[in-house]
Structures
1.
Amino acid sequence: MTTKEEPLTHVEDNEDANSTGPSDNGNEKAATPYAVDWDEAEEKKLVTRIDWHVFPMLCVIFGLSLLDRGNLSFAYIAGLAEDLELTTGSRYSIALLVFFIGYAVFEFPSNYAIRRIGARVWLSLLVIVWGALVLAMGFVKNWVALTVLRALLGIFEAGVFPGAIFIIGSWYRQYETARRTSLFYLAALISSGFGPIIAYGLSLIRVGDGIYRAGWRWIFIVEGMLTVVVGIAALYFLTDFPENAKWLSDREKHIAQSRIMTDQAARKYVHPTVKESLKMMVDWKMAVYAFQYFVAASGVYSMSYFKSIILKDGMGFEYVMAQLLAAPPYIFAIFPTLGMSWVSDKYRIRWPILCFQSIVALVGLIIVLYGGVPAFRYFGLFLAIYGLQANIPGTLAYGQNQTPSVEKRGIVSALMISIGAVGGIAGSTIFRGQDAPNYLPGMWTTIALQIMYTIVTFAMSMYFKRQNRLADEGKLPALEGVEGFRYAA
């Protein structure tokens, strides 16, 4: 999990990042046991340790969450649609969208609880419960029971993604986050890439002569059991926030917290009250971040739920080929996503990367829609999935980077992903059954949203650049109330 770090100077994000706390009387630094500054080699060694402790289990959990929420589309074409009569009316779309109701509502309560209970215990509990829900889906006998379980699944999966982004934002500097958020999101691409292949393999299982001869049930049963096992393992292997990390010495905790503070204060995390949390939300920029993530999420979810159906019904591939061909575009997307996130951190640019990826998605969607021969349309799917998927971690990093306060980062991630759940509802409804096989309204809605994303991201970044310039010239007070802070445009 190692990534090569750029040479770090403790003044680039923080005019005195080596200081150990506020110095009201001029003597506090001398009183601390960490008066000796750390050097670059010590910090780089610590960052490598952090990478290995933060990411492995976090990536596994997130990958399973994407697999478990997306397996409905695989089961649908493996016989679920006929057995539970999901083709009647809007039953399939309803089963998809109820997930996002609880998912949207419980983002904030979860991020509010995670600091108080601890990430290790809280996230592990969520994983175990949602694994049990997925397991139960393998035994349902009607679409109503399936829909209820999907609604409960949304409630318990709600805390994982914003909690993980909150954890990453609590460990890393401003221009360390894009690469690491993309590395974390790599789990989603792997899950999405191999999910159809795994689902196809599981759908071949046959047991007895009753309901368990239906292969789609084993997709839920096996994946649910796997998730429960991983949730139990997470109690031992999942890391926590810096102040609660038992694998760090006191000095390492001090360095880990001090290096990300932009207000020259190596202070402990202060739990915001409900009133303070609501006050943090009253910031017009939050609406922009939320809109950006809404667009990113709606495109990703629509492709996730309907790509196999588009391949099967729209491009004419048989069931087996539709499942297998759904994987390569996601595997391809891993490499440009990681490459562009590296460029974004290395050269400290955000908007050119985000806008480029949005335009790539737009071009890909047009090719899928009007490409003519199936081979060319399939090529368009590669471009569309790369552009849509890559802007998920990029957009999350963008919102986190404009927020100096660790406490507020938790609010930002929860708000963005809550609105992303609304994007999931949109993504599961704009592709209507009556629009098959080309889904023209849904495709053009997704294209229009990508155009709006590019315009909004460019305009917001130009605003940030202007604010940075005015602050450099001394014409503005401290940005975000923090001396020395600059936006990442």
2.
Amino acid sequence: MLIKEVAASLYPWDLHDEGVDHCVDTLAEHANVNSVYLVGIMHKEKRPLRELYYPHNPKRKFYMPEDSCVYYRLDQADFTNTPLKPIYSSVDFLKETDWLDTLIASARSRKKKVGVEISHTIFDAKIARRDFPYLMQRKIDGTMLSLLCPNHDHVREYIRGLFHSSVKTHDVDFIQSCLILFAEGGKMGWHNHAVADEKELHVLLNTVDGGCFCEACRAKAIAMGYDWERIVSDLRQLNQIRSGAELTDAMGKKLLEQSSLPATALLLRVPSLYQWLEFRQKSITSLFRDIYEAVKSANPLAEFRYNTYLKYPELSGLDFAAIRPYIDSIRESDYSEMWGNPDQLAAKRQKILKIRSGIGYEKDVIAAIDVRPNVRGESNEDIIKQSVKLISNLGVDGLSLGHYDEATLSRLQAVKSAMEQSEMRLY
């Protein structure tokens, strides 16, 4: 099978510690990488994420990134109409360098595709909660979440500014984002957290514990013709049953948990639940339209790629068929290789096919490959080879490695070997 790219992400501290040319050359040599991108706005999490220490960083054993800082230059004029302004790194060894330009220079000299990623979060959560509480997502009980609401005009303007300015000021082929959308609620979690006894009804019911029920959402929903007060009233009752707050609610919860009621029946029984999900979907689709238009106005040739990370993205407002006009490609960041169990790879296949059924064949699907040791700390190359072989039969347009900073060289080499064995070639 022919594919367009093998992509890999790099962090600014990777480039500083190992050297940008070394990183790019290592990825190209060991894993056929022809596309690199900078994680230019990174959420707060320890790196490496899974292991205690880096396997090949010569300067530090681990790193604690700042929350949602920017590591490259942006045009402040893009943020004139919002109180939210980009927060740049304050770390001495990072703050004086435009790390995106640094990566671009290396990639271009090697004739590689190059991009930038705006990661899960786009603004420091502590600062946002302190200074901009009116911009935050709210649960149905009014509890503030640590996420900006994409329905607020100021937040929407800030998001547009990030994407427009990133593409306008830098020679990138693509801009990728795994931006957290609406809080999905309950214990749904990320796509790799498998739940053996998960029922579709429970998954659906958990959404009422998510966001957003803020004033901006209320105003937008009413303007779109929804009966917001009825929706909130009905969903509040559902949430009480879901949480089993009172004895009667606890009884209702047991009935739902132990019954054979399908999710469809719940939507028919509580039309407000469907209306709320539909409202969120329309809100996110309009956000993607704004982002897409911002990217294309800055550079019509630049690609907008969304990096989907949830098991059920629909429950955060993302519908693949609805956003099809407003994306160029989707990266499915399924890391089922992390379990070291071939049976878990079935989830990757299902997610890739779901994306394809939504966006069609004119838009690209990029499949992620986990090149980190698995959850038991084993550098199991066989699971990578099995995964690449599986993917080679799914009509994807590229691979994307996650992530170089924690990858062992043997697992990178397994990607290259698996591509050869599966007759997967770049063109």
